[in-house]
Design goal:
- The two termini are about 30 Å apart.
- The protein has helices at about 1-15, 50-60, 70-80, 85-90, 95-100, 105-125, 135-140, 145-155, 165-175, 185-195, 200-215.
- It is mainly alpha-helical.
- The longest helix is centred in the middle third of the chain and has 17 residues, at about 105-125.
- Helices cover about 55% and strands about 0% of the residues.
- The chain has eleven helices and no strands.
- The structure holds a DNA duplex.
Length: about 240
DNA sequence: CGCCAGGTGGGAT
DNA sequence: ATCCCACATGGC
């Protein structure tokens, strides 16, 4: 029953908001399907080269507890100044990197996180048998926790790890499916066990939850017009 | 103005 | 193990 509900919610969100087209990779501006800042909208964008894989990894770290808008500005700067590469981030000065990523907030911490991550991928090249890192490996990197690891695995490497964030917890607590005090692994287990193991659906579902949390299930919820209204108990609204 | 944003690591209990 | 806090900019 819960199994069906999780998929029903997915279907409703998909019908209401439409496909989200994550990961929002930056690309050349002026093309069809790209907004004025040059970000891709509306179609799936899995990385096609190492450069784009790294762009997702950097974005996943920069967006920690930070709005994506702030991160877009930072990615713009890093690309324009040719600083968005493993080598540049790993070998450049931390203070220099911090000055470039200022607009994403926590810039000293994130500069350290980015350097640690770049160093990791330089010393663990993705070649031969392994074209992707193991989750446990990612979690050993200073600055990469569970959500960031899963974002990287799902969006950069197409591995079926459902991404859990505060939005996911907020939405499913209000729906009455979570109590609100579950740990990351508990919540992820719920999705993994009740949903088909499908990378594209995991991709879309998480992106839809982010969109829903921004449009309706905000901290102060806007329940008027909410597509999930008839399924929602409104638990834990503060 | 105050609150919020696609968390994480470190230190105290 | 679990709670609490620092980290920081930009948008509304």
């Amino acid at each position: 029953m819960k199994k069906k509900r999780l998929h029903t919610i997915y279907r409703i969100l998909f019908e209401y908001y439409g496909p989200q087209g994550w990961w929002p990779l930056k690309s050349l501006s002026g093309k069809e399907g790209f907004d004025k800042r040059g970000y891709h909208r509306g179609l799936y964008r899995y990385p096609v080269n190492e450069q784009q894989v790294f762009e997702i990894i950097v974005g996943a770290i920069l967006t920690q507890n930070t709005s994506w808008k702030n991160v877009e500005r930072t990615i713009d700067i890093l690309m324009t100044e040719r600083c968005l590469s493993l080598q540049s981030i790993a070998s450049g000065r931390k203070s220099f990197l911090a000055s470039k990523i200022r607009s994403s907030g926590y810039y000293n911490q994130k500069a350290k996180k980015l350097k640690k991550t770049a160093e990791f991928f330089l010393s663990n090249p993705l070649s031969g048998e392994k074209h992707y890192p193991e989750r446990e490996q990612l979690l050993t990197i200073w600055g990469i926790g569970e959500e960031t690891a899963d974002s990287i695995l799902l969006y950069a490497f197409k591995k079926p790890w459902f991404v859990i964030d505060t939005y996911t917890k907020r939405i499913f607590t209000r729906l009455g499916i979570l109590s609100g005090n579950e740990k990351y692994t508990d919540v992820q287990q719920l999705f993994h066990s009740h949903l088909e193991k499908d990378v594209t659906m995991y991709n879309e579902y998480h992106a839809l939850l982010v969109e829903h949390a921004k449009k309706h299930c905000t901290k102060k919820p806007i329940c008027n017009g909410c597509p999930l209204k008839r399924y929602c108990h409104g638990y834990n609204i503060s």
